[in-house]
Each structure stands twice: as structure tokens, then as C-alpha cells.
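[Discussion] Sanity-checking designs against the backbone

I'm trying to build intuition for which residues belong where. Below is a C-alpha cell string of 463 positions. I'd appreciate it if someone posts a full sequence so I can compare it with mine line by line.
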């Protein structure tokens, strides 16, 4: 680890311990002085640690001791649930000040989480034009491009010169989410072009914006899903993306800092689903009540448990065969584990490829052919190792070794080919491909492994 980062971490931990100690003595202003040694992001993290270690009331007291300009910078860096709790405790003037100073998209995020009666109360004190705009943004679907965007962008006219455009950016830049990209609009607010700050700075003063702008525009629609929007950012490396309504009018932009939060959410969701956790809340692990954990995990476990009834039925059906050749029982866990691991490896790679856009639905045959070739090489290698082990170390007969090793080769081939196509099939019918990884894949391959093993035993050993 870099020494400077390590030193920063140690300083953070030392100050946090000091703040906890000062809180015990109710020395709130000394706590504030300690907090002010850090930037807004670190202060937000410390306040949330205070919430976990003590309670919300103590955190709110500390929050109130901060200078107003600092508190406004700290607030957007806190978890939304904590923001809502703070707003429910502080006074109306404090709420109004914070919301007035927040960036528009951050304000919308907070308002979306507040009770309707509190939102109405806040909007009563909001200027009419701004209230209309807020209500418009609040009506956009959750997790859509409209819910992520901000109306704070720089607009230009195509007849402006580069000099005029730069002067305009200087005039309105402080109130805009980003100054690096400006949007050229027609009279009906239709988006007709995009021009970068870099182009304006290096262009001759007299050159027209119409000559500098790019008319080949990649954009999002207000109803586009946030995951589709994040894919555009990842693919093209945008700093900002324009969002239009049904009439093609520019209504806002989405900036990269907001989409980073979306990417984190989507990755978290994929990881949870790959582990068989279906969580509809946005709460952190330690903040989730026990019953919420149960609701997220129990349904999937019950479903997977039902799949093992089939596995148990297969074993019961071949009970007599297993009792006649007891050695076969020893290798069942290895075959099921190898099948599950092989399938999970493939589904993990395919799900990731699908999420990054590397693998499309039309690539099914390519995926199958690649996994088929990979599985043959891997299957032969692990089967050869086990053949030697079964003969030389376990001292079992050649027919038992052939049963186990041919089964393993077929299981690896089936598991990897199945694992490559299953996520694509899931997406085709509208199921999250991530659900086809982890426990689900292991359960399916267990059934396939045992079925294949018993068929091979019947063939080689005449059981």
C-alpha cells in the first residue's frame, strides 16, 4: 500500500476514535473541530459511523455543528436512508437551506425517498417554476434515465461564435453540472449538436458553433433503463450523456458520477443474485434488519432445496447398484463438485461478458463451440489424473476407473456447454442471467452429474 494512503487511513481511524471519545464527554464542538480536518466525503463516512456506533440523534447534533457550507457538501455523500432520517429530525429552515443548495439531481434523489406530506410541505415554499420542474422529475420511473438526470447543463445556439460561447459558459458555468460539454439546441429545444469545451477553447474566436459541433449524437431517452444507460457510459467513456423526451427535446443530462453509483448498484445486484440472494432493498448489510435478510435468502434456498429432492430420488433409484459396488459412492461428491465448479466458471464468464456487452444474444453458437472445445481439453486432463489415482492409489479395478473418468469427461462437457447457454436462455425469456450462476448452476449440475454417472455405471459395470 502507498505510504500516503496508509497514513491517511491511520489518521482517519485516529480521529474517529478521538471523536467517539469526545462524544462520550458530550464535547460536540471539539468533535466538530476534528471533523473539519477532513473533506466532505470523509466527514460523511465519520457521521455514518457515529450513527452505527451510537444513534442518529448524536450524528444529527454533530451535523448541525458543521458550518452551513460544509454541511451542504457533506449531505450528498451520505446514504439516502440516512439523508431522509436527518431531514426528518432537523427543522424546516434547515431542510430548505440544504435542498436549495443541493445539486438538482441530488435534491430529487432525496425528495423521492421522503414521505409525500413532507415533500408537499417543502414544495409549498419552492418557487412556482422550480416546483413545476421538480414535479416533472419526480414523475419519471424509478431506475430510468429520467430519474438520474439533471437539468443543469449548458446550452448554446448554433449561430454563436466560439468567443460568445465561451463567454456564455463563464456566465452560467457555476450553476451547471459540467462545463466540459455544451449542447446546441434549436428553437424548439431539439438537440441538434454537441460541442466540447476543448473545441471552443482552441477554435478561432470568430468560428461558429455550427462548424464546431458534432451532429452524430449518442443519447438516452427518459424511459430508458438505468442499466442500458450505464452500458453506454462504459462503452463510449462519456463524461455526460444527453437525455431527450418523446418529442426529441433535451430535458437533462446524466453525468458520470451518477452513473458510477448505478454501476455499483448493478454489480452488487449481480453478485447477490449469483449467490442466490434476491434483495429488493438498497440497504447496507449491517443496516438490514434480520427479517429482511431472511426474506432475501429463504425463497431461493427453498427453491434449490426442492431441486435436491430430484437428486435424492436418483440416488434412491440406484441404491441397489450402489450397494453392490460400494466404491462408486466414494466418487459421487467429486463428480458433483467438478460439474458444479465447471458450470459456475462458465456462467460467471458468460454473465460478465453479457453485462459488458462483449457477448450478444446472437453469439450463442460461438459460445457453445468455444465451451465445447474448452470442456474437452479440461475433461480429458481431470479424467486422466483421476484414472491414475483410482488405479494406483485407490486400488480399484479398470472398469470402476473407466466409469468414473468417462462420467467426469461427459459431466464437464455438459456442465460447461450448459453453463454457457443457460444465462443467454434466461435473458431471452426475461430472467436476470446472474440468477443462473452459483447455487442454481450447482443444483442443476448435481442432477446432471448423478444421472450421467449412473448411466455410465450401468453401461460399464452392467448394474
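Best answer:
Here's mine. Compare freely.
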Amino acid at each position: 500500500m502507498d505510504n500516503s494512503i496508509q497514513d491517511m487511513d491511520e489518521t482517519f481511524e485516529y480521529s474517529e476514535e478521538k471523536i467517539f471519545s469526545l462524544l462520550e464527554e458530550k464535547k460536540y464542538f471539539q468533535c466538530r473541530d476534528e471533523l473539519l480536518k477532513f473533506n466532505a466525503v470523509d466527514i460523511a463516512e465519520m457521521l455514518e459511523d457515529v450513527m452505527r456506533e451510537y444513534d442518529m440523534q448524536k450524528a444529527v447534533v454533530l451535523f448541525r455543528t458543521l458550518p452551513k457550507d460544509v454541511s451542504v457538501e457533506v449531505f450528498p455523500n451520505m446514504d439516502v436512508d440516512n439523508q431522509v432520517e436527518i431531514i426528518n429530525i432537523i427543522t424546516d429552515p434547515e431542510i430548505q437551506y440544504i435542498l436549495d443548495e443541493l445539486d438538482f439531481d441530488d435534491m430529487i434523489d432525496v425528495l423521492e425517498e421522503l414521505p409525500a406530506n413532507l415533500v408537499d410541505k417543502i414544495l409549498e415554499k419552492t418557487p412556482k417554476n422550480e416546483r413545476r420542474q421538480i414535479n416533472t422529475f419526480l414523475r419519471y420511473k424509478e431506475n430510468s434515465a429520467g430519474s438520474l438526470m439533471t437539468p443543469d447543463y449548458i446550452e448554446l445556439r448554433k449561430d454563436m461564435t466560439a468567443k460568445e460561447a465561451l463567454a456564455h459558459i463563464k456566465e452560467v458555468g457555476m450553476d451547471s453540472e459540467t462545463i466540459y460539454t455544451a449542447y446546441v439546441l434549436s428553437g424548439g429545444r431539439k438537440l441538434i449538436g454537441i460541442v466540447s469545451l476543448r473545441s471552443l477553447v482552441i477554435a478561432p474566436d470568430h468560428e461558429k458553433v455550427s462548424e464546431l459541433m458534432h451532429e452524430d449524437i449518442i443519447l438516452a431517452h427518459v424511459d430508458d433503463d438505468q442499466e442500458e444507460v450505464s452500458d453506454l457510459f462504459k462503452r463510449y467513456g462519456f463524461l455526460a450523456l444527453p437525455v431527450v423526451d418523446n418529442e426529441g427535446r433535451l430535458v437533462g443530462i446524466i453525468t458520470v458520477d451518477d452513473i458510477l453509483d448505478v454501476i455499483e448498484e448493478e454489480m452488487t445486484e449481480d453478485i447477490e443474485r449469483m449467490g442466490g440472494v434476491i434483495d429488493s432493498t438498497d440497504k447496507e448489510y449491517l443496516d438490514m434488519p434480520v427479517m429482511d435478510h431472511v426474506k432475501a435468502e429463504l425463497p431461493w434456498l427453498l427453491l434449490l432445496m426442492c431441486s435436491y429432492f430430484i437428486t435424492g430420488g436418483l440416488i434412491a433409484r440406484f441404491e441397489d447398484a450402489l450397494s453392490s459396488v460400494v466404491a462408486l459412492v466414494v466418487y459421487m461428491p467429486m463428480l458433483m463438485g467438478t460439474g458444479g465448479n465447471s458450470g459456475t466458471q462458465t456462467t460467471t464468464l458468460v454473465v460478465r461478458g453479457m453485462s459488458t456487452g462483449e457477448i450478444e444474444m446472437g453469439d450463442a453458437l460461438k459460445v457453445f463451440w468455444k465451451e465445447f472445445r474448452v470442456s474437452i481439453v479440461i475433461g480429458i486432463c481431470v479424467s486422466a489424473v483421476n484414472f491414475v489415482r483410482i488405479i494406483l492409489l485407490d486400488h480399484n479395478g479398470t472398469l470402476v476407473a473407466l466409469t468414473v473418468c468417462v462420467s467426469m469427461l461427459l459431466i464437464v462437457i455438459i456442465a460447461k456447454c450448459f453453463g454457457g447457454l443457460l444465462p443467454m436462455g434466461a435473458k431471452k425469456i426475461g430472467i436476470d442471467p446472474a440468477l443462473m450462476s452459483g447455487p442454481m448452476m450447482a443444483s442443476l449440475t448435481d442432477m446432471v452429474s448423478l444421472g450421467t454417472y449412473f448411466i455410465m455405471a450401468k453401461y460399464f459395470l452392467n448394474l
